Amino acid sequence: MTLAERETRRPVLGSIWASLPTPALIIGPDDTVTEVNPAAEVFLNHSSKSLSGQPVLDRLAIDAPIEEIFARARANQSALFVNEVDVGTGERPPVSCTLQVSPLSDAPEMLLLTIAPRELADRLGRAQHVKSAAKSAIGMSEMLAHEIKNPLAGIAGAAQLLSMGLGPEDRELTELIVLETRRIVKLLEQVEQFGNLRPPEQRPVNIHDVLDRARKSALVGFATHMQVVENYDPSLPPTLGDMDQLLQVFLNLLKNASEASKGQPGTITIHTFYDLSLRVRMKDGTSRRLPLQVEIIDDGPGIPPDIAAEIFEPFVSGRENGTGLGLALVSKIVGDHGGLVNVDSVPGRTVFRISLPIAPKGSDPDAPQGAA
């Protein structure tokens, strides 16, 4: 292969490495970590920089003679598989995994170690099925929403006219018709909104201004039964984003936290802080810092374990009569902002964390939307 061909391949290989869904590590001749992919950073809960140069067995507890496996792979110059072996990190309980150890063709003393947790394959398969079904469902819903909303408006109007000449008992039935048609229209509008969301018009935004608007709106509406506690870091710099869309994100998360209490009094904590260590690997292989952190914490019953892995997918909901579009919209908007959203949930404590970039220095916070 010529030098030019190698240079052409590097960006492609970097993109593939960054996109691998399974944790992967490059192991040096002395069994130290030389490189990890983003999935391995998540699995090990450490950054690539902090792992580089560390003995792999200081970071992984593997219930198998891994040093012997490394030696055999190097000696035979062939890949080895280890099925259903427990792998832990010292910071998380061991999980059953399949390991593959392969020597690199252009550096035979270097090894590629991939770790495939058994539940990952099942989760990826379920997620792919959900995404495919959701995409088809959204497309069909968008196509039908407009046509359905028009006759619904006619039904609601007719019911209101009928109620004028009816007695109290019969009027209750017409009021029910109006309420239910309005509920269906609202659902259809959510579907249309999800499918037609415009790209964010970004400019520097004070995240606390957005959170304050969301908190006030929530307390006079759906969160009247909740106590909302603010735990802010006032020194946070502005993020780069679309204020209206970010407001929608936090309103959806506050609404989700309020509904988790099922009408009972509860507490929502809004926590902001700065985490300079958080970096994410983009699809093109580059790295990006997301230091601004916003957490919405509730003390509700938690997310059902059977849907936790797909909670941000469209039409996946843990509540009866839930549309499953609120969190999907949150994920879409945050992703469009170059950010990250994740959730950690146990009974009594659910934390949704939004990680966002900071606005570049010199950005004009008073510029009109779209000027940044």
Task: Give the topology.
Blueprint: H1 3-19, E1 24-27, E2 33-36, H2 38-44, H3 48-51, H4 56-59, E3 61-62, H5 66-76, E4 80-88, E5 95-104, E6 107-117, H6 118-163, H7 168-195, E7 203-205, H8 207-219, E8 226-231, E9 239-241, H9 243-260, E10 266-274, E11 279-281, E12 287-289, E13 292-298, H10 326-336, E14 340-346, E15 349-356
Parallel strand pairs: 8-10
Antiparallel strand pairs: 1-2, 1-6, 3-4, 4-5, 5-6, 7-9, 10-13, 11-12, 13-15, 14-15
Helix pairs in contact: 6-7, 8-9, 9-10
Short characterization:
This protein is of the alpha+beta class. The chain has helices at residues 3-19, 38-44, 48-51, 56-59, 66-76, 118-163, 168-195, 207-219, 243-260, 326-336, and strands spanning 24-27, 33-36, 61-62, 80-88, 95-104, 107-117, 203-205, 226-231, 239-241, 266-274, 279-281, 287-289, 292-298, 340-346, 349-356. The protein folds into 3 domains: 3-121, Beta-Lactamase, CATH 3.30.450; 122-195; 203-356, Histidine kinase-like ATPase, C-terminal domain (Heat Shock Protein 90), CATH 3.30.565.
